[in-house]
Amino acid sequence: MKKQINIVLACFAILFTQQLYSQSSRVRTLSFKEFKQEILTASDAIYVLNFWATWCAPCVEELPLLIEYFASTNDPSLRLILVSLDDKNKIQTKLIPFLNKHKISNEVIVLDDSDEPDWINKISYEWTGSLPATLIFYQGRKFLAEKKFTNKDSLTQFIDQIYH
């Protein structure tokens, strides 16, 4: 009996570790330089970057709307990236548990760069740095929404700007 309990406990430990690993592998930490090279210069898709943090109540309220919208869209050229401004030292203790709890499987990038005023202006000269903020860009065109989206229509209208 004791051997069976140990086997069951070992199986649970493996499953938990795999779940934690899969969440960790989805969350990447990038410096602004890496972020700029990899994301901000990309032209292979229409990028929607949502800047948020687990400690930002309006950000947390907005996330389900964004995730639902992108899960239901039929446009394969749209790419949502959740850019977390959480402290990189809290990825394992705060961010990943938050993602697990809310069943968020979207790509998450943690920006790890202490020179915030500099990179905020490089992302968009219009951005004051407040959260949530959503940036959409494609082929040199950028649109910034420095607000929380509250419904699908306002989000759709914002994203549709890139097509016109």
Any overview of this molecule?
The chain is α/β, with parallel strands linked by helices. The chain has a single domain (27-163), classed as 3-Layer(aba) Sandwich (Glutaredoxin), CATH 3.40.30.10. Helix content is 48%, strand content 21%. The chain contains six helices and six strands. It has helices at residues 2-26, 32-40, 57-72, 91-101, 116-123, 152-160; strands spanning 27-30, 46-52, 78-84, 107-111, 133-138, 141-145. The chain has a six-stranded mixed sheet. Strand 5 and strand 6 (141-145) form a beta hairpin. The longest helix has 25 residues, at 2-26. Mean pLDDT is 85; it is low at 6-25.
Tally of individual domains: 1
| Secondary structure tally: strands | 6
So how many helices?
6
CATH topology: Glutaredoxin
The CATH class name reads Alpha Beta
Instruction: State the helical fraction.
Output: 40-55%
Order of helices and strands: HEHEHEHEHEEH
Instruction: Determine the oligomeric state from the structure.
Output: single chain
* SS-derived structural category: alpha/beta
The overall pLDDT, averaged over residues, is 85
CATH architecture: 3-Layer(aba) Sandwich
Sheet of most strands:
6 strands, mixed
Q: How large a portion of the residues is in β-strands, by DSSP E?
A: 15-25%
CATH superfamily: Glutaredoxin
Radius of gyration: 18 Å
Sum up the overall morphology in one term.
globular
Strand order of the largest sheet: 1-4-3-2-5-6
